[in-house]
Amino acid sequence: MSTDISPSPDSTPLDPRSASGLELMQAWAANPGLDRPSIGRLLGMRPVAIGEGTVTFTVTPKPDFANPLGSVHGGICATLLDSVMGCAVHTTLPAGVRYTTLELKVNYIRSVALDADDLTAVGTVIHSGRSTATADGKVFAADGKLVAHGTTTCIILR
């Protein structure tokens, strides 16, 4: 079940040792004031929806994302995919259990202009086991066209 994000009056950070991955992700999404240094903050990722086994983030292209050809660098979509797929895995993990990306595969479909509207990425868990998890993800342009898609394998650190 996916939950749309709205600010919460509770601004107390959750302890990753006592909160599930889903609880941590929902708290982060609902309390932007709790933001801490992260790749999400660096790129300006914004959570749209968080649910068990699925997350959706958006990012707005900006000039700092340029590749030498003047369009959005492919690493932006790769990072966005790595984030939504990994965070989707995180939502399936109990308190105190961590994960990290073991493998990332990205397919690029079309380029993205630096002045494009928001990119939206959706990550969905395929399998979450004791020692590994897999997920897939898709990045869409504001017009709904597929920009990139990928898969990940994460190692579960118990």
Report on the architecture of this protein.
One of its GO terms (molecular function) is fatty acyl-CoA hydrolase activity. This is PaaI family thioesterase. It holds the Pfam family 4HBT. Residues 70-148 form the Thioesterase domain. With 158 residues, this protein is of the alpha+beta class. The protein has a single domain (2-157), classed as Thiol Ester Dehydrase, Chain A, CATH 3.10.129. The protein is built from 3 helices and 7 strands; from the N terminus they run βααββαββββ. It has helices at 21-30, 39-43, 74-90, and strands at residues 2-4, 46-51, 54-59, 98-108, 119-128, 132-140, 146-157. A hairpin with a 3-residue loop joins strand 5 (119-128) and strand 6 (132-140). The longest helix has 17 residues, at 74-90. The chain is globular and about 45 Å long. Residues 1-11 have low confidence and may be disordered.
Per-chain topology:
Blueprint: E1 2-4, H1 21-30, H2 39-43, E2 46-51, E3 54-59, H3 74-90, E4 98-108, E5 119-128, E6 132-140, E7 146-157
Antiparallel strand pairs: 1-2, 2-3, 3-5, 4-7, 5-6, 6-7
CATH architecture: Roll
Name the helicity range.
Answer: 10-25%
Number of strands: 7
Described by the principal axes of the CA atoms, the overall outline is: globular
**What integer value in Å does the Rg equal?**
15 Å
Give the CATH superfamily: Hotdog Thioesterase
- Class per helix and strand makeup: alpha+beta
Family: Belongs to the thioesterase PaaI family.
InterPro entries: ACOT13 (IPR039298), HotDog_dom_sf (IPR029069), PAAI_dom (IPR003736), Thioestr_dom (IPR006683)
Organism: Gordonia asplenii
GO molecular function: fatty acyl-CoA hydrolase activity
